[in-house]
Amino acid sequence: MKNSNYLSVTNSPLYSFIFTIPLFIIYEIGVFTISVNDIVILRNGADVLMRQVLGLFGIYGIYGFSASFMIGFMVAFLRQKKSLETTVIKGEYLIWMFFESICWGALLFILMGFTTTLLMANSTGTMLQQVVLSIGAGIYEEFVFRVILIAGFGSILGFIFQWKKFAKTTSGIILSAALFSLFHFMGDYGEEPNFSIFMMRFIAGIFLGLIYVFRGFGPAAYAHTVYDLIILTLVTTQL
């Protein structure tokens, strides 16, 4: 396997779509096993943002966000599929992506390891609820704050200031990382405003944004999930 071929082929919506399906299924099964009264515990910054936006279009309910996510990702998948010379998905590439994502998650932990307990949000609830929250954060927060907002901020600022690709991407990463950190303080289960913790999550957002830009949504989602599960394991074993 040529490294250059692996990196170029797997950095695509097609591979990210296939790669993320198992994570999405595990999350949906986890949500299904949790009672409706406990679903509120799973709310995070992405939930607050997307549920309010979807509510404007009359989309409500526990699974409204999930359905909208899958529809949007299917559109991206079909658009990418039309431009491919082949539709063959190499299983070994998906396996390498999995181990690569674990390395990214571990690297994020090393980068932020000195503040691990401070970065763990919504630490109440059962172990199952916390695992589901970690998986959901990996999928939905990366979808909102990386896929949507990096492109959104970059396009808007690029149009206004006539910036080139590098400036648009850089501004998108920075602004989406700031909003990513800010939204952890929102909602009934949000944390008290704290500048130090804001900066910690901001740095994490920059790191995840770079993974998304250079490696795609799938590795960013898995890296986020791996990091959260590492923190959850550490917090649980220290209790």
Keywords:
about 240 residues, mainly alpha, about 0% strand, globular
Structure explained in plain terms:
This protein has 239 residues and is mainly α. It has one domain. The protein contains ten helices and no strands. The protein has helices at residues 3-10, 13-33, 45-56, 64-82, 91-112, 116-119, 127-161, 165-182, 195-215, 217-238. Helix 9 packs antiparallel against helix 10 (217-238). The longest helix is centred in the middle third of the chain and has 35 residues, at 127-161. The radius of gyration is 18 Å and the shape is globular. The termini are far apart.
Q: Gyration radius, to the nearest Å?
A: 18 Å
How many distinct folded domains?
A: 1
Largest sheet: none
- Encode the helix/strand succession as letters: HHHHHHHHHH
The total count of helices amounts to: 10
> Overall mean pLDDT score?
78
Q: What is this entry, summarized?
A:
This protein has 239 residues and is an all-alpha fold.
Topology (SSEs and partners):
Elements: H1 3-10, H2 13-33, H3 45-56, H4 64-82, H5 91-112, H6 116-119, H7 127-161, H8 165-182, H9 195-215, H10 217-238
Helix pairs in contact: 2-4, 2-7, 2-10, 3-7, 5-9, 5-10, 7-8, 7-9, 7-10, 8-9, 9-10
